[in-house]
Amino acid sequence: MFPYPILFVSLVLMWLLLGGFTPGQLVLGVIVAVFASWAMASLRPEKPRIRNIHLLPKLFVIVMIDIIKSNIHVAGVILRSGAKRHNPGFLTVYLDIRNEFALAVLAVVLTSTPGSVWLEYDSNDNSVLLHVLDIDNETVWRDTIKNRYERLLMEIFT
Amino acid sequence: MIQSASDLPLWAAIIVAFFVLVGAVLALIGAIGFLKLPTFYERIHAPALGTSWGVGGIMLASIVYFSVSSSRLAIHEILIGLLVTVTTPVTFMLLARAALHRDRAEGNGAVPEKHRPE
Prior knowledge:
The structure holds 2 protein chains of 2 kinds. By secondary structure, chain A is an alpha+beta fold. Helix content of chain A is 59%, strand content 12%.
């Protein structure tokens, strides 16, 4: 009946947010979510296995703070451009995580953070090519990715 | 029942104005960055301002405004923020990989070659 519980709950929540929190909408949303879950099940995607779900809010807060900081930094770079040159560059980072879902979350986090973009992932040697707008200190960037995000993601996903 | 904007209490008006301005200013700076930054790979960073806290600020302002003025919780804007956050990296990666492919094929710019494990 419920092959994908997380998907099911998210779909019902989305339906209720869009349609209003009434019993009628709840029934409709549950019906839609059940059929959507079955459609998803026939595609047979790999299920995410989340080990430490209590660490997700911590990751969310860390990412929000980093996004605010980098928003200010990138806005400064754009407004100053011409006066003081920034230093853009490519950066290759070798990752330790191989879980697809953890990689997807890391890609979303790095791309949503202004100032760094995930360009290319190579599954042969598990490396990722990033472009960084202001690459003052390469080791700081590597340290942020490896220790701030990757370690937490490894704890969340098995 | 939705009240008119002038009936909004002062504290809510200040919060709404603050978040709308933050969102709008970031989107504007992102657009300026699009115009001023010299290379493709630098320009790809500019819209990230609009899609992170640009969208976030306007989303928060909308949540506060409609929650206060219609006296019930209006949080469906979260969906907009969520879907924008999840979908933009896909577009960014497609554009960036197309640019990488072109630059490598034409051999222009300081683009790192695709390294192969020895």
